[in-house]
Amino acid sequence: MSVPETVDRALLTAAVVVIVIAGAALLERIRRGPSMLDRAIALDVCAALIIAGLGAKSAFARDSFYFPIMLVLAFLGFTGSVGIARFIAVRDRPPRSGTSGDGPDTPERKKR
């Protein structure tokens, strides 16, 4: 094995170790929360870690078989994140000022 191949193997092994450590920290973040948004972001990062792991496996094996799978996972992760963000944005929207009866658009204030 030549020196560049040895360095390549060492860097790929280090990358896999970092991905595994990040995955363990990610699982702890999903478990602890504290909010739904934290868990949603952690699941988005989970998709990114899976893609990174597949990329490391592909580089380790010197095979491009996993590239289409990585592309599909990236698309699913993006659309899932956008969907969750829209759901949370609608759910956490503050009430409109005209619906409670004491806002600036009530009929009593318009008459003054």
Report Rg.
23 Å
By DSSP, the count of extended strands is 0
- Major sheet attributes: none
Helix content: over 70%
| End-to-end C-alpha gap | 87 Å
In terms of topology, how is this protein built?
Elements: H1 3-32, H2 36-61, H3 67-91, H4 107-111
Helix pairs in contact: 1-2, 2-3
Q: Can you tell me about this structure?
A:
This protein has 112 residues and is mostly helical. The chain has four helices and no strands. The protein has helices at 3-32, 36-61, 67-91, 107-111. The longest helix has 30 residues, at 3-32. The radius of gyration is 23 Å and the shape is elongated.
Keywords, separated by commas or semicolons:
112 residues; mainly alpha; 0% strand; elongated
Short summary:
With 112 residues, this protein is an all-alpha fold. The chain is built from 4 helices and no strands.
